[in-house]
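Case study 2.
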Amino acid sequence: MRTLPRRSGPSAKTAAAAVVLFLLAGCGLLPGTTDAPPSSSPEVIGGVDEQLMPYYGQSVSWESCEGRFECADIEVPVDYADPDGESIKIAAIRSTTDGDSLGSILLNPGGPGGSGYDTVRGSLEQMTTEELRGSYDIVGFDPRGVKRSAPVTCLTDAERDAAREVQYDLDSDAGIAEAMEDSAELAEKCAAKTGEVLGHVDTASAAKDMDIIRAVVGDAKLNYLGFSYGTFLGATYADLFPERVGRMVLDGALDPSLTNEQVTLGQAKAFEGAIRSYAESCLASADCPLSGTVDQAVGQIQDLIRSVEANPLTAQDGRLVTVGTFVSGFIVPLYNDVNWPLLTRALDGAFDGDPTDMLYLADLGAERQADGDYTSNSTAAFTAINCLDYPMESDLAGMKENAAALEEASPTLGRYLAYGGTTCESWPAEPVRTPAPVDAAGADPILVIGTTGDPATPYEWAVSMTEQLESASLLTYEAQGHTAYGRGDSCVQNAVDSYFIEGTMPDEGTVC
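Prediction:
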């Protein structure tokens, strides 16, 4: 039986070279600020700029939705430098406790581009424990630019399918130039269809939205559970509002000090390690399509991927599977070792010339249904947010140098992670952030979790984030896969629950 991979990290950027046309969809601005009287106590909204008071004090009606949840739209300014200008609405959903609540925990599943709304609605039991849900209201939201919250809009579903079949010759300057031309055309479509908000979907603006959500739910401090990119969002909030940090868990840390190129290089190394771990496990099973030593097995995977690059395959539904789509599918089950059997099955078919199962995995990652409908705009949001958060290397010589470093770090995937700078070179909004360490001086204790075999957010990033944040402690999880909490390990779950419910941090240096 096929299971859905746990996938929340920043590696939607994988195969950027082969999939420079990031696949996009969504809506535009939602109007109007509210002049409703404040619904929160002075303690909850204290110290807020007067121009933002209509947002912090807005009256929000939580209504029953999705069967057993409550939903609300929360209004925020498009541009925090111009609070009297246009506004958008952030879609939020929450589960509530049956008895007394300790407050709310805001949850972000990662991305950027992941839907916290969908996570709470569809995966709450898998992502959190019964003890946590019984103690707190769990609030999910779609960050600005994502799905229900003024989503980034660029391509139709049919155009997204077509874009995923494009393959560029990145060994030639002409192929790189073609990729950059197509990226420029895509950027124009995004700007035309999305409007003003496209320049304001950066992480700092989303963190400021979280402070308004905190006030709207009536909490004096923000309690927060962030996975993968959600750790970067949480750390950004802590750096902006250290005095308003409550109990914060950052699981699968993304180091805020790294450049885009350093992030990609770190992921290349980590995914190469995950591939070797998968190959070793596969060779020990009875149905593995690989053979020989681990080195030989990895070599067979590399040869397969190169063969798809040279001669794209056709799936049973008639769709063309180019190397970008193939690599995207290959990466998805590496996020969770529980899903390694799915990769084995997909590789088995691909070695026989049938990429159908690999395409199925790629469609899961792209959130495409069998009927051709895409259920989210996660890739579009990923692109838009990263183009604002990271100045990217788009000089041809610099990109070639980065490409060589990536191939050295990951002989299997590095080639397909290169030339990501082509995507943002013509983006209609300039980056608003320079990568730098965060310290959140004065914040309450923050728990950072790192998984030693994490392919998407390497363990050393958790170590680095812990060192940067003044009040952080590190919990280490010795395992394969992306993130830790909610994956069934009682040691991790007990540590996180005790922190949230009792305020007890695990001992320094705890290893699970």
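Residues 1-38 have pLDDT under 50 and may be disordered.
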